Amino acid sequence: MKVWLLRHGQAHAEARSDQVRELTDYGRNEVRQSLEHLRGAPLEAIYVSPYVRAQQTAALVRDALGLPGELRTVSWLTPESDPRESLAELQRLSGDEILLVSHQPFIGALGGLLVHGNRQQPLPMHTASLALLEGEELLAGLMSLQVLAHPDLQ
């Protein structure tokens, strides 16, 4: 199984609430750079946080790659989600290759849990960072980190 983790691109600092913060132009460019690593990946589904900046990030990926289907919005990918509870949700899903679009500190903690088996070693996920985890089974500590890419915009 392959699980791609993507943190949303840079978002505006101010909005009525954290949930409605939108991507900046810089953030959109970060996402466009990161999604190049996904070209050719046979993604079966994109699961995304309900927050606006994550939705915009996932839509950019889907549209740029010409992927069919709708984004699957789930409540267990928000910044304050518990990685262990989200892992349990992930284990109920089917598919060999999926993309999760979410936020820090959650996405780094989930990646650390999957690779190291604990949350004390989170993956360093900057805005629009992309990680690929691969393993025979989706279990804490049994996934290996194959790719960790950060956008490099000047």
How is this structure best described in words?
The structure is a single chain. The chain has 154 residues and is of the alpha/beta class. It has one domain (2-149): 3-Layer(aba) Sandwich (Rossmann fold). Helices cover 29% and strands 19% of the residues. It has a six-stranded mixed sheet with strand order 3-2-4-1-5-6, with helices on both faces. The protein is built from four helices and six strands.
User: How many distinct domains?
Assistant: 1
Q: Do you know the CATH architecture?
A: 3-Layer(aba) Sandwich
CATH fold title: Rossmann fold
Rg of Cα set: 14 Å
Residue runs with pLDDT of under 50 for 5 or more positions: none
Number of helical stretches of at least 4 residues: 4
The level of helicity is 25-40%
Looking at this structure, what is the CATH superfamily? Phosphoglycerate mutase-like
Instruction: Count every beta strand, where a strand is a DSSP E run of 2 or more residues.
Output: 6
Shape: globular
Please give the largest β-sheet.
6 strands, mixed
List the secondary-structure elements in sequence, H or E.
EHEHEHEHEE
Output mean pLDDT: 95
- Spatial ordering of strands, largest sheet: 3-2-4-1-5-6
Distance linking N and C termini: 34 Å
Strand content: 15-25%
CATH uppermost class: Alpha Beta
Q: SS-based structural class?
A: alpha/beta
GO molecular function: protein histidine phosphatase activity
Protein name: Phosphohistidine phosphatase, SixA
Pfam families: His_Phos_1 (PF00300)
